[in-house]
Amino acid sequence: MPAQIDIKEVHWLLDIVQCIDVGVIVLDRQYRIEVWNSFMENHSGLGPDEVHGKVIFELFPEIDETWLRRKVDTVVQLGTRAFSLWEQRPYLMHFKNYQPITGQEDFMYQNVTLLPLAASHGVVEHLCAVVYDMTAAATHKKQLAARDAD
């Protein structure tokens, strides 16, 4: 019998998901958005009510649909995480760069982790995408490369 979940713990977990400084998106297998945390809201300008149930490719046409579907298929089939680094693909979604100190970049560079989310019966029915703002690291790496080229 599974352990009983304390409602207070669920509340804490939801608070953490909303407050961490990374984007958290949960998609169903039809790519409809189920969870959209405050990081995503702040950077996209779209609230959870505006995105819930919508297909992510319709809201963000800049996403390379073929690439993301291939990545997700691998995650689902293998049941393992997959990663995308900003050096390979600068971003998943084109967000403006809002960092006042490193404001040299026009957009937010992003690392993305894709996590399989299995239902209680073990089948992966959802996927979590975690979006990390890597703009500061990208800026520093580009500055070092430019300096080394001189």
TrEMBL record:
GO molecular function, one term: kinase activity
Residues in PAS domain copies: 9-79
Thylakoid in keyword set: no
Species name: Pseudomonas mangiferae
Protein name: PAS domain-containing protein
InterPro entries xrefs: PAS, PAS-like_dom_sf, PAS_4
Record keyword Kinase present: yes
Entry-linked CDD domains: PAS
